[in-house]
Automatic annotation (TrEMBL):
Pfam families xref list: YbbR
Gene3D superfamilies: 2.170.120.30, YbbR-like domain (2.170.120.40)
Phylogenetic placement of the source organism: Bacteria, Bacillati, Bacillota, Clostridia, Peptostreptococcales
Domain of life assignment: Bacteria
Matching InterPro entries: c-di-AMP_regulator, YbbR
Organism the protein comes from: Romboutsia lituseburensis DSM 797
Name of the protein: YbbR domain-containing protein
C-alpha cells in the first residue's frame, strides 16, 4: 500500500497545484455574492444615560435582540461574525409607557445589511421610592413565647425603590427571627424581604437595608395554683377536702412585670350546692389581661364519701343535768337506765367516739304539759344524723 503512494508523485503535485490555482481564480475573479443570517443579535440602547437621568427603566425586563442579514462578496462575508456586528438604537423623548426603539447597525466594510425588524417596542417605568412598614415574624418550636420583637434603634419602616408597579405591590417588609431553644430575651441579625398582601415575595425592587438587628423579648412562664371562687350562697360546710380538681395548678405566660404580680388563678364563681355528691362540673378560669395559658377550664368533682354508722349506749350516770335550781328535785327525774345513741357521719371527718357526744337534760325546760324532759346531745363533730332512744325521761 505504501509503495503505491510513492508512485506517480509528479502527477499528484500537478493536481494539487491546479486545485489551488482554480480556487484562487474563483476568489479573485469570480468571488460570488452571498447572504448570511445572524439571529438573536443583542441590541444596545445608546441613550441609557438619559433614561437614568429621568429615573426611567425598561420594565418588565426583556432581552433586546433582533435578526440581521449581511450580504456581500464571499471573500468579505467570511470576515463577518457576531463579534463585529453592532446593533444599537435610541429611544427618542423617553417617557413612562410604551416607547419605540429605532435600530441601526454597524458592520465591517464592503458588505450590506438588513435588520429584519428595525423597530422594537419597550415599556418604561419610573423608578420610585417609598417607605414600607417592617413586620417581624417569629418561627421555631417556641415562637408562641415571643412577647415582642422590635428593630434596633426604633426603626419601624424601610425604604423600597424600583419600578413603580413593583413598589406598589409591596405591602410590607418581612423579617423572620428563629426563636430556637432560647428561653431568655436575645438579640439577632435577620434578613429582610418585601412581600405583597398575600405574603409572596416581590421581585425587582431594592431595600434601603437588607438586614436589621432585632431585640426579642420572650414571655415568662410561671406555674401557679388554681383557687375555687365560691358564690356567697354556697354551703359554708363544704371544705376543700370534699372535692377534687382535674388539675391543681396551671402554667401561665406573659410579660415579666405582669406574671410576677400573679400568685394564683381563680375559677369562675361556683355555687357548690349545684353539684350533687359524686357529680362533676366544668369551670372556666378567670385569666387576667396580658396572660395566656393552654388551660381554659378545669373540672371539679365532689368526692364520694362513705357514711359511717355507730351505736353507743349511755347509762344513767353518764347523763348530765344542766341548769339545776333549788326548787327542782333532781331525784324525782326518772332517767332511763340505758340510752341508745345511733349516729351517721362521713368518713372524711375522722373517727367519732362516744366521748365526742355528750347527753344532757336541761331542767330549765318547760314540762308543764308532758311532765318529761328531752334528752339532748352536744358535740363539736360534724355528724349528719343523731337518733336518741329513748329521747325523753320516763
Amino acid at each position: 500500500m505504501i509503495e503505491r503512494f510513492k508512485t506517480n508523485t509528479k502527477i499528484k503535485l500537478i493536481s494539487l497545484l491546479s486545485a489551488v490555482v482554480l480556487w484562487l481564480y474563483v476568489m479573485a475573479v469570480v468571488d460570488p455574492e452571498e447572504t448570511k443570517l445572524f439571529e438573536g443579535m443583542p441590541v444596545t440602547i445608546s441613550n441609557m444615560d438619559e433614561l437614568r437621568d429621568k429615573d426611567l427603566v425598561i420594565y418588565p425586563k426583556i432581552d433586546l435582540t433582533t435578526d440581521i442579514s449581511v450580504s456581500g462578496k464571499l471573500s468579505k462575508l467570511q470576515k463577518v461574525n457576531k463579534d463585529n456586528i453592532h446593533i444599537y438604537g435610541q429611544i427618542n423623548n423617553p417617557m413612562e409607557g410604551s416607547n419605540d426603539i429605532y435600530l441601526r447597525a454597524n458592520t465591517p466594510g464592503q458588505v450590506t445589511h438588513e435588520i429584519r425588524n428595525n423597530i422594537l417596542i419597550v415599556n418604561l417605568e419610573k423608578i420610585v421610592s417609598e417607605q414600607k412598614p417592617i413586620d417581624i415574624q417569629a418561627e421555631g418550636k417556641h415562637k408562641s413565647n415571643v412577647a415582642r420583637a422590635t428593630v434596633d434603634k426604633g426603626i419601624d419602616s424601610i425604604g423600597v425603590s424600583g419600578p413603580r408597579s413593583q413598589v406598589k405591590l409591596v405591602d410590607k417588609i418581612v423579617g423572620v427571627v428563629d426563636v430556637g431553644s432560647n428561653t431568655n430575651d436575645f438579640t439577632a441579625q435577620i434578613k429582610l424581604f418585601p412581600v405583597d398582601k398575600d405574603g409572596n415575595e416581590v421581585k425587582d425592587v431594592e431595600l434601603e437595608k437588607s438586614s436589621v438587628t432585632v431585640n426579642v423579648e420572650l414571655l415568662k412562664e410561671k406555674t401557679v395554683p388554681i383557687q375555687i371562687k365560691f358564690t356567697q350562697d354556697s354551703n359554708p360546710d363544704i371544705k376543700l377536702k370534699d372535692y377534687t380538681l382535674s388539675q391543681e395548678s396551671i402554667v401561665i405566660k406573659g410579660k415579666k412585670d405582669v406574671v410576677d404580680k400573679i400568685d394564683y388563678i381563680e375559677t369562675e364563681p361556683l355555687n357548690i350546692n349545684d353539684i350533687a355528691n359524686s357529680t362533676s362540673k366544668d369551670l372556666g378560669l378567670s385569666i387576667p389581661e396580658g396572660i395566656s395559658t393552654d388551660t381554659k377550664y378545669i373540672t371539679i368533682k365532689l368526692k364520694t364519701v362513705k357514711t359511717i354508722k355507730e351505736s353507743f349506749v349511755y347509762t344513767k350516770p353518764e347523763i348530765q343535768i344542766r341548769n339545776k335550781t333549788e326548787d327542782i328535785d333532781i331525784s324525782k327525774i326518772d332517767i332511763p337506765d340505758n340510752i341508745n345513741v345511733n349516729i351517721e357521719y362521713l368518713e372524711n371527718i375522722g373517727t367519732i367516739t362516744k366521748e365526742d357526744i355528750v347527753l344532757y337534760i336541761d331542767v330549765s325546760q318547760d314540762i308543764s304539759e308532758t311532765q318529761k324532759y328531752d334528752i339532748k346531745y352536744e358535740t363539736e363533730s360534724d355528724i349528719k344524723n343523731v337518733v336518741i332512744t329513748p329521747d325523753k325521761t320516763l
